[in-house]
Amino acid sequence: MGGDHGPEVVIPGAAMALQRHPQMRFVIYGDAAQVEPLLDAHPALKAASAFTHTDVSIKMDEKPSQALRLGRYKSSMWRAIQAVRDDEADACLSAGNTGALMAMSMFCLKTMPQVERPAIAAIWPTVRGESIVLDVGASIGADASHYVNLAVLGAAMARIVFDMERPGVGLLNVGREEIKGIEAVKEAGRTLREAKLPNLDYRGFVEGDDIGKGAVDVVVTEGFTGNIALKTAEGTAKQIGAYLRSAMGRTWRAKLGYLLAKPAFDALRAKMDPSRSNGGVFLGLEGVVIKSHGGADVKGFAAAIDIAYDMAHYQLMRTIRDMLDETPIATAS
Fold this sequence. Notes:
- By secondary structure, this protein is of the alpha/beta class.
- The protein has 13 helices and ten strands.
- It has helices spanning 7-20, 32-40, 43-47, 64-71, 76-85, 98-109, 144-161, 183-195, 208-213, 223-248, 252-272, 298-313, 316-325, and strands at residues 26-30, 49-53, 92-94, 119-126, 129-134, 168-172, 201-206, 218-220, 280-283, 289-291.
- The strands form two sheets. An eight-stranded mixed β-sheet has the order 3-10-9-4-5-8-6-7, with helices on both faces.
- β6 (168-172), α8 and β7 (201-206) form a beta-alpha-beta unit.
- α1 (7-20) packs parallel to α2 (32-40), α4 (64-71) packs across α6 (98-109) and α5 packs parallel to α6.
């Protein structure tokens, strides 16, 4: 029921994802008056779904505390998370209020014993392919232990998404030299370097411009910095697009040049299309929860379902538990 478009994107997106994963089944919660006509229009999805009407849906502008007070136990968002807790679903996906989704997920699913706070991990397009960046907004600030846990959580996700044994991990910092940065980042770097974890290749510090270069498979930072980096990258992409549209329509020669270069522009547009990498993964919870971008279209929401499917099918939770069990605890020196 959440996001900019609600069921009008969610239901067709699920139908599209079902075509790619015919073995998938859906447990859908929402307002029957809005959802059931859309399900009727997609008979294959309807046959693969169990729908439950809920009277309450969380508004996009509600504070997490309001959402918990008004929607606990009875909202569509809560019921979807609860389905994961009760083993009725393998993953929860929502395009709704991010703060409410995180608060409800923490309250309903709880965090893993070794994890103090969960994180949101995003798949980030780079010149080399894709990387994972976390945290992009779950919580502000971090100590050394939290940075180390973020590195392990991100590497566990990268092993599934990128199908690699030892993802390269870097800590986002103001410089690559070991003497630079705040003490928590430096201590986390020392811990990861000395641990020599078998399923994680720690590459040291990376800077902001290394994210787009794809210098590492996993970029680790805390939520305040990560969210600013994410929003800056999205804004820059829109800015470049606006510049190109303006320049290409300025003269007849520019318009002719655009027509000749259209295949290259189409390839660039596809590379920068946010729907290709839609779906932030909540890591560190006792269950799989995925947050779709609120403005995602049908194709974008289907992409988020693909991520949810991969996280469940390739057993993200087991991978995280195994890697956390062999991770040392960072202590401030």
